[in-house]
Specification:
Distance between the termini: 40 Å
Number of helices: 8
Largest sheet: 7 strands, mixed
Strand content: 25-35%
Number of strands: 14
CATH topology of the largest domain: BirA Bifunctional Protein, domain 2
CATH superfamily of the largest domain: Bira Bifunctional Protein, Domain 2
Order of helices and strands: HHEHEEEEHEEEEHHHEEEEEH
Length: 275
Amino acid sequence: MGPREACSRVADFRLGPAAVEAGFSVQGFDSVDSTNLRALGHARSGGADRTWFASLEQTAGRGRRGRNWVSKSGNLAATVLLSAATGQSGLANLGFVAGAATHATLAEVLGTHSSVLKLKWPNDVLFDGQKTVGILIEAESGRGRTNLALGIGINVAHVPEGLPYQATSLRDIGVEVRAEDVFTVLSDQFAHWLTVWDQGDGLAAVLDYWRNHAAGMGERVVVRQTNGAFEGLFEKLDDEGRLIVQMDDGERRVVTAADVFLAGITPNEAAEERV
């Protein structure tokens, strides 16, 4: 029996009305190896884009820089497949769309708790400084098309073990909600923010939302890139969504890709993340 046959479909993953209207579909699972892998496999086999792959458990997921990411049963692992002509500008900014959609989703789900929800550049949502959501975009190109798997992991009932930073779940916050119901809200919010983005013409509106909810702006941050790490002041996001960091000597560095750690991270954690 292959991996696809070994997975049980979950009938309770449902799209919201805005997502249905926008032409999305969903395939739901009880447990899956990786929703990103399923999305990219679907694309390779000629499957339609605007398809969501949602699961209550993920056993072989991936985080940034190839890190393992296992999500226990009761959490939400969801990936949406989008396809565009290779070379189309602005595709990298879809991470900001996913971030805005996920932040807005949790704001709706959490209600009065939402004032401490923040977006951490480039791809996390924090609750009171603790990671609650991770986002990973993977892409494959061929035959003139680029397929993008926008993976979103939400800690609904559990926090992954062995993390080098603080994290929390909706259950830990005191909110009992089904992952399936969180997904329904997410599907509608993503459809909304994808429309706002409008093939990149609406990026300014997406980035305005980010700036209004950005974690650590005006604070010191540790920026870790493949060639080393540095510290400075998180000054702003520019009009392309790049992180602008002011160094102690006044130099401004433009960061397009990195792991960013906010003020308050312990020295041991900072050292570990520099390795």
